[in-house]
Amino acid sequence: MEYCCHGCTNLNKDEKKIDGTCYMYGCRSDKRGKICGWIQSDNELKTMGCSSWTNKPTQINEQLTLF
């Protein structure tokens, strides 16, 4: 992972949204203001980050062009 949320200065743990057993923190660098996905443990922050957002639009565009 090129950029991960764990230890990132843009991670905002004060802004925590809870949904059942999952939760999502805030992110000061994302225009949505949230990290890129729901997590069940802070350890998952080591496997996600800004580079996760970078790849998603490309994947969606490629999938749409196939159909």
One letter per element, helices H and strands E, the order comes to EEH
**How many DSSP helices?**
1
Helix content: 25-40%
Backbone shape:
globular
Structural class: alpha+beta
The biggest sheet, with number of strands, parallel, antiparallel or mixed sense and barrel status, is: 2 strands, antiparallel
Q: In which order are the strands of the major sheet placed?
A: 1-2
The value of Rg in angstroms is: 13 Å
| Strand element count | 2
Q: Which stretches are poorly predicted, pLDDT < 50 over at least 5 residues?
A: 55-67
Beta-strand portion reads 15-25%
Structure description:
The protein is α+β, with helices and mostly antiparallel strands. The protein contains one helix and two strands. It has one helix spanning 50-66, and strands at residues 11-19, 22-27. The chain has a two-stranded antiparallel ribbon with strand order 1-2. Residues 55-67 have low confidence and may be disordered.
Provide a short characterization of the protein structure.
The protein has 67 residues and is α+β, with helices and mostly antiparallel strands.
Secondary structure elements and pairings:
Layout: E1 11-19, E2 22-27, H1 50-66
Antiparallel strand pairs: 1-2
Keywords:
single chain, 67 residues, alpha+beta, two-stranded antiparallel ribbon, 1 helix, 2 strands, globular
